[in-house]
Amino acid sequence: MKNNSFREKLRRFVDYGSFREEELKLPRSPETLDTDNPENRWLTTVQNSEKPVRARLAKWFTHRGVQVFDNLYRVAAVFICLTLISLLLSVVSFLPRFGGADNPAVNEVEERYVSKAIEETGTTNAVAGMISAYRGFDTLGEAHVLFVAACSVIALLRVDPSERKHGRLVDPELLGEDMDYEPNSDLILRKAAKLLVPLAFIFGLYVILNGTSSPGGGFSGGALIGAGLILNSVAFGFQRTERFFGDEMYHLVKTACLTVYALLMAYFIYMGANGFDDHVWLGVPGNIISGGLILPINVAVGFEVACTMYCFYALFRKGGL
Amino acid sequence: MVQLREFLTNLFANYYEAAAMILFGIGFTSLLMHRNLVKKIIGFNFMDSAIYLFLAAKGYITGRLAPIITDGNTDPRLYVNPIPTGLVLTGIVVSVSVTAFSLALTCRLYDKYHTLDIDEITYLARKERD
């Protein structure tokens, strides 16, 4: 039963390339060719052909040619990569100096984003002001990229809940019983998760809410909350996570967040898309409630990112939320 | 000789960018050399990370602070460039999405052909078609 163990399967799954050579090795001569094997039928037809020269040529190509091509391919790949690296390095040597204050990237756009951040967007974090106020439409596109990616992964990997007994792969010959080999009540993992999951949620919320006045924001905080959700389901199983975050909750949170964000951006663009100062109360810069629309945008993006991360994990692990 | 010295001094002055380009080359090499689809995707992620390093290095200005405005001091000469940071954020989101999508496609291929080898998958798919 050694061949069936989880570790063996994992090795086969991850390390396939290392022993494909033995399995794929083509027979060297017609004597050793297993003619009964249907996989070799195309070779035998070549060998039994009426035209000996062509047949010999074809044989050479199928036996030696593959190896020759393989070696040539490797040499060419290394050559192409070295050429690419040296080209890029020579371009780098012509770039303006690293860290110079007079680089062309430091221009009036950057000056405007930093000097008008408090006045126009109400944040002390110029990056947050840039990505959610000045370039909020771009960030809306990013949120949609995440949404579309989650949708396509759902379309590719979703398994019907009634057939989801053995995880995503239904074929028990393959990886189906992976879940049976996993420790179900790992004490260390559970104790650590009990300690870390609430901390991850609280810290993620802190990063989201404080994104207007300190490094952070929706994407990083959402990633933290998603990591907490994943840790929770790793330690306690999916049933425990489904109690408060199931399929319906996922769709509700995700569409609500995207809709809120889209409506806020629509309002922003309708009002001229030139800073928040005229239309929204900006609050005191540096406080949590500040930055006008940036705080709700951060919250929406954060929950969307958390949903997407957990959705990816759940889909790859068991084929559905 | 003088040109070579100039080239090397410029390269060492831009050492972040040079490291990013070498990382990009490593990712591209693994994209070309490996037959395993998962390793190809890892190489793709290497290239993504190289681009982030490059962009973040382009935004840095020596001796300046992170662009968090402290004490109401809005002089732009105090802070580094915030724009590449935002662009890196965009890139990270897109690369996460693309990685998840390609891994999902790889999963489906593994379900069907029981291998991650790109040559073998092509061979099996061609055999299936004929």
Briefly, what is this?
By secondary structure, chain A is an all-alpha fold. Chain A is built from 14 helices and no strands.
Describe this structure in words.
- The complex is a heterodimer of chains A (321) and B (130).
- Chain A has helices at 6-14, 20-24, 41-47, 52-92, 108-115, 117-121, 126-134, 136-157, 178-181, 187-209, 218-236, 238-242, 247-270, 294-318.
- With 321 residues, chain A is mainly alpha-helical.
- Chain A has 2 domains: 2-92, no CATH class; 126-318, no CATH class.
- In chain A, helix 7 crosses helix 8, helix 8 runs antiparallel to helix 13 and helix 13 (247-270) runs antiparallel to helix 14.
- The radius of gyration of chain A is 29 Å and the shape is extended.
- The relative contact order of chain A is 0.11.
- The model of chain A is unreliable at 16-27 (pLDDT under 50).
- Chain B is elongated, with a radius of gyration of 21 Å.
- Chain B has one domain: Helix Hairpins (Orthogonal Bundle).
- Chain B has 130 residues and is mainly alpha-helical.
- In chain B, 32% of the residues are buried.
- In chain B, helix 2 runs antiparallel to helix 3 (37-59) and helix 3 (37-59) runs antiparallel to helix 4.
- Classes of the chains: A mainly alpha (321), B mainly alpha (130).
- Chains A and B meet through helix 4, helix 5, helix 6, helix 7 and helix 8 of A and helix 1, helix 2, helix 3 and helix 4 of B.
